[in-house]
Design goal:
Blueprint (H helix, E strand, L loop, with lengths): L2 H20 L2 H9 L7 H10 L4 E6 L2 E2 L3 E2 L6 H11 L3 E5 L9 H10 L4 E4 L6 H9 L3 E5 L5 H13 L3 E6 L2 H7 L6 E5 L11 H6 L8 E5 L5 H8 L5 E4 L1 H4 L4 H9 L1
Parallel strand pairs: 1-4, 1-10, 4-5, 5-6, 6-7, 7-8, 8-9, 9-10
Antiparallel strand pairs: 2-3
The protein binds ligand LARABZUK.
Length: 262
Amino acid sequence: MSDVLARICDDKRALVASRKFARPPGEVEAAARAADPPRGFVRALREAVAAGRYGLIAEIKKASPSKGLIRPDFDPPALARAYREGGATCLSVLTDEPYFQGCDAYLVAARAAVDLPVLRKDFMVDPYQIAESRALGADCILIIMAALSDAQAQEIEEAAIAHRLDVLVEVHNREELDRALALKSPLLGVNNRNLKTLAVDLATTEALAAHVPADRMLVAESGLYGPADLSRMAAVGARCFLVGESLMRQEDVTAATRALLA
Ligand SMILES: O=C(O)c1ccccc1NCC(=O)[C@H](O)[C@H](O)COP(=O)(O)O
């Protein structure tokens, strides 16, 4: 596992242990069952692509390990509305606090402001977080293959399926891609960001795209700054994109989202 990712996941395991103590799994499971029904994250992306549009997962991201503070005036419900207005298909909301200055309340507030499906963007290391995600209202969770063994990834995916959550399975190289294909989720993200060096290279998606089977939806993630980047990713078959920083830095997020998709 890469250094930064290893550090984030170690901290996450400690956090989950303390959360389990404060709020036992049975309580979280009950809250998950009582939550607003999932909105269909994969379905929304499929519908966008079937209609000849790009599927845009627009990320609500205040800060990151690679860039520090990205958006000082951070208002998740206003950002969610701006993304919706600009044509985003789905939202991604960072809930990790120590590294991304996110929090669970941001997801709840962003989802309440719009009718879009929402990805809880966090580092899943324990099935407890899956029930917790559903209890918060999340419609999709992230599995980072570099952070998990095959057995852990499968256990987390099964928990997500049991909670009717969609799953974005994220890979960075061929070995992770081959492991990801043993999972059931149709949504396959290729992250252009190397989580060891935090360097971004769009050639990552270009190298892996040809190895993604036709029954998976390829999502190009990270380092996408404008329509030319989307076209470059589309040239190798990507129709769905996860974009954070470049949109978060714009004053007019609606106009920037429209321009990206133009
Ligand atoms: O963004 C980071 O610095 C980062 C560091 C360590 C682990 C994950 C990280 N990012 C998570 C993401 O996948 C991105 O937030 C997402 O793909 C959007 O990327 P971008 O458009 O480049 O903000």
